[in-house]
Amino acid sequence: MADLRNIVILTGAGISAESGIDTFRGGGGLWEQHRVEDVATPEAFDRDPDLVQRFYDMRREAIQTKQPNPAHEALARLEHEWAAREGRRLLIVTQNVDDLHERAGAENVLHMHGTHLNAWCTQCDVRSRWTGTLIDRPECPECGARALRPDVVWFGEMPYEMERIYAALREADLFVSIGTSGAVYPAAGFVRDAKALGVATLELNLERSQGSNWFDESRQGPASALVPEWVGEVLRKS
Ligand code: BJW
């Protein structure tokens, strides 16, 4: 680890699970209560906008009552300590639409699947910070149209920031995946992209994921324990 300089960290729903935010897959996950096709595709939104807006309004309200856990806090600490060391870079790429990385103090975070706390106007294409509801079809603060949707990436839509993510992977020495099932692309493919580039890979997840076999190392356990432990290791050894 002594010559470790550039780190790319991918996070998924598992990192926020211990903050009380539901994951998607597995027992009790969001997709057990709602079919993906009914709430997380552009077709679902066209078919039944009220159902989709209600689903996201509920989750937008819920995340604002949740707090970062020791895993978010450890990553924020690593980011700050890393930034203080010359020539080192760290990027957090999250699939999560919550803001717990930022609320823990992390600054260099890309939300590849968007964020609950933005509304996107399909009329003027402007994104506005949004903490309230959308079911009541409020006006866009920019253009006044009643055409706001959640600023999240649904199946079949292009995830955000892909160029910056692939550029960071090309520069990385280490790719770390935390709390994600490896079921959704393109994020699920990053481990293979990283390996093809000769980047070392590490997985931290509650259980083995669909992608575990691709990682150089895979550690199992709750993020609130595994992440602070790994961050401590990195800061001690680098
Ligand atoms: C813990 C823990 C604890 C629990 N501690 N761990 C066939 C083959 C390949 C691809 C496709 C295909 N058919 C269609 C596709 C493409 C499609 C896709 O991947 N489909 C799959 C179902 C196969 N992908 C897309 O459509 C994407 N767009 C796209 O591909 O565009 C084209 C493109 C081409 C080339 C380059 C780039 C782009 C868009 C995907 C959008 C995903 N959107 C969602 C919803 C966001 C809004 C919302 O929140 O509602 O994003 S779906 C949902 O899944 C959400 C998540 O970000 C994403 C990933 O889930 P995540 O985070 O992994 O959560 P879980 O629940 O799956 O896993 C949690 C893990 O944590 C588990 O492993 C637990 O064990 C663990 N855990 N507690 C540590 N305490």
From TrEMBL:
User: Cofactor(s) for this protein?
Assistant: Zn(2+)
SUPFAM superfamilies linked:
DHS-like NAD/FAD-binding domain (SSF52467)
- Return the Gene3D superfamilies for the record: SIR2/SIRT2 'Small Domain, TPP-binding domain
A Pfam match is SIR2
Q: Any idea where the Deacetylase sirtuin-type domain is?
A: 1-237
Q: Which GO-annotated molecular functions does the record name?
A: histone deacetylase activity, NAD-dependent; NAD+ binding; protein-malonyllysine demalonylase activity; protein-succinyllysine desuccinylase activity; zinc ion binding
GO annotations of cellular component type: cytoplasm
Q: Which keywords are on file for this protein?
A: Cytoplasm, Metal-binding, NAD, Transferase, Zinc
Q: Which reaction does it catalyse?
A: N(6)-acetyl-L-lysyl-[protein] + NAD(+) + H2O = 2''-O-acetyl-ADP-D-ribose + nicotinamide + L-lysyl-[protein]; N(6)-succinyl-L-lysyl-[protein] + NAD(+) + H2O = 2''-O-succinyl-ADP-D-ribose + nicotinamide + L-lysyl-[protein]
Q: Where in the cell is it found?
A: Cytoplasm
Q: Which positions are annotated as binding Zn(2+)?
A: C121, C124, C140, C143
Q: What is its EC number?
A: 2.3.1.286
Q: How is the cofactor bound?
A: Binds 1 zinc ion per subunit.
Q: Which residues bind substrate?
A: Y56, R59
**Active site residues per record:** H113 (proton acceptor)
Q: Which residues bind NAD(+)?
A: 12-31, 95-98, 179-181, 205-207, 223
The UniProt family comment states: Belongs to the sirtuin family. Class III subfamily.
Q: What does this protein do?
A: NAD-dependent lysine deacetylase and desuccinylase that specifically removes acetyl and succinyl groups on target proteins. Modulates the activities of several proteins which are inactive in their acylated form.
What the entry says about domains is: 2 residues (Tyr-56 and Arg-59) present in a large hydrophobic pocket are probably involved in substrate specificity. They are important for desuccinylation activity, but dispensable for deacetylation activity.
Q: What is this protein called?
A: NAD-dependent protein deacylase
Lineage of producing organism: Bacteria, Pseudomonadati, Pseudomonadota, Alphaproteobacteria, Sphingomonadales
